[in-house]
Amino acid sequence: MNPLEHTKNCFGKALRKIRWEKKISQEQLADNSGISRQHISRLECNNDIPSLETLRLIAKGLNISMKDLINEFETIYYKPVFNDDLKVAEKNQSEKYFLAKNSNSQKK
């Protein structure tokens, strides 16, 4: 993996990890930060690298410091860990979102 791809991958994992730990959805983070949910998704899916301003807004939306956000990124970047727990959490979150979305559409 080239350095740019590794950076994207590690930042996406760091952002997702912090967001899950805080139990914040992408939609909630978008509302809290002023960044679109689509941009957050692109970051978490390793399709984009954030600007300095985006980092500031994400940290603000997560109610953490930029330093904490960067520290999490560096932890993953310099000590890559492919954590099966994140895969399980991602699957569970996807299933919960799907169930909630279907439940809301059935109520209408």
Task: Explain how this protein is built.
The chain is mainly alpha-helical and 108 residues long. It has one domain: Orthogonal Bundle (434 Repressor (Amino-terminal Domain)), CATH 1.10.260.40. Helix content is 77%, strand content 0%. The chain contains six helices and no strands. α1 (3-21) packs across α5 and α2 packs across α4 (52-62). It is globular and about 45 Å long. The termini are far apart.
Low-confidence stretches: none
What is the CATH level 1 assignment?
Answer: Mainly Alpha
Structural class: mainly alpha
Total number of β-strand segments? 0
Strand-residue fraction?
A: under 5%
Instruction: List the helices and strands in order.
Output: HHHHHH
CATH architecture: Orthogonal Bundle
Sequence-ordered SSE layout with sheet pairings:
Elements: H1 3-21, H2 26-33, H3 37-44, H4 52-62, H5 66-78, H6 84-107
Helix pairs in contact: 1-5, 2-4
State the gist of this model.
The chain is an all-alpha fold and about 110 residues long. Helices cover about 75% and strands about 0% of the residues. The protein has one domain: lambda repressor-like DNA-binding domains (434 Repressor (Amino-terminal Domain)).
